[in-house]
TrEMBL record:
<dbReference type="GO" id="GO:0005829">
    <property type="term" value="C:cytosol"/>
</dbReference>
<dbReference type="GO" id="GO:0016020">
    <property type="term" value="C:membrane"/>
</dbReference>
<comment type="similarity">
    <text>Belongs to the OSBP family.</text>
</comment>
<dbReference type="GO" id="GO:0032934">
    <property type="term" value="F:sterol binding"/>
</dbReference>
<dbReference type="InterPro" id="IPR000648">
    <property type="entry name" value="Oxysterol-bd"/>
</dbReference>
<protein>
    <submittedName>
        <fullName>Transfer/carrier protein</fullName>
    </submittedName>
</protein>
<dbReference type="InterPro" id="IPR037239">
    <property type="entry name" value="OSBP_sf"/>
</dbReference>
C-alpha cells in the first residue's frame, strides 16, 4: 500500500510513495502500481510518478502498461489512451465543506474530519495537525472503551477477508 509522505522543509508538501496491488476477484485481473515520491533534487521525471501494469496472472499476460504522474495526465502505454487527467479534474474541484451536521451520524467521516479539512483549506497547518491529533486520540479512546467492554468493531460498509493479507471489500 502506498504511504503518504509529509515534508515540512524546505516547503510543506505531501507525496505518495510505495507500491500497491489491486486485484479483481471476479475477473482475476491485477494492477501493480509504483508511486514514486519527490526526490531531494525534485527531478521532474520522478516527481509524483506512477508506473505499473495491468495484467492477467494466469496465463501471464500484460494487458496494459501505465505511466505518468498522479497529479497530471497518465497514459496506457500500449494504446496511448489518456485514462485520467488530474489537472483537468483538480482544476474544477471545489473543496468540500460541512455546512450542516444535522441528520449525520457523529461517526460520519465528514463530521469527524471537518475541522481538519477546514484548517487545511485555510492553510492553518498547526490547527490541522492539532485537529488531526484530536481525531486520532478520540479513535484510540473509543477503541480502548470497546476493548474494555469486550466489543469488537465491525465496519458498516465493508467486510474483511483474509487471503494471505487483509482485504476490505465493499458490501451493498
Amino acid at each position: 500500500m502506498p504511504t503518504i509522505v509529509i515534508r515540512l522543509l524546505p516547503l510543506p508538501s505531501t507525496d505518495w510513495f510505495g507500491n500497491v496491488t489491486i486485484s479483481c476477484q471476479e475477473s482475476g485481473i491485477r494492477a501493480e502500481l509504483c508511486y514514486r515520491g519527490n526526490s531531494f533534487l525534485r527531478r521532474q521525471s520522478v516527481h509524483r510518478a506512477v508506473r505499473g501494469k495491468i495484467y492477467m496472472p494466469l496465463p501471464s499476460k500484460d494487458v496494459f502498461e501505465i505511466s505518468g504522474y498522479w497529479d497530471r495526465p497518465y497514459h496506457w502505454r500500449k494504446l496511448k489512451t489518456l485514462i485520467y487527467d488530474a489537472k483537468e479534474t483538480l482544476s474544477s474541484l471545489k473543496p468540500s465543506a460541512l455546512i450542516d451536521e444535522e441528520g449525520l451520524s457523529p461517526m460520519e467521516s465528514t463530521v469527524i474530519w471537518s475541522e481538519v479539512s477546514q484548517a487545511i483549506i485555510s492553510r492553518s497547518w498547526d490547527k490541522a495537525r492539532e485537529a488531526k491529533t484530536a481525531v486520532e486520540e478520540k479513535q484510540r479512546e473509543l477503541a480502548r472503551k470497546r476493548k474494555s467492554m469486550g466489543e469488537s468493531w465491525t465496519p458498516k460498509h465493508f467486510t474483511a477477508r483474509r487471503l494471505g493479507g487483509t482485504a476490505h471489500l465493499y458490501t451493498d
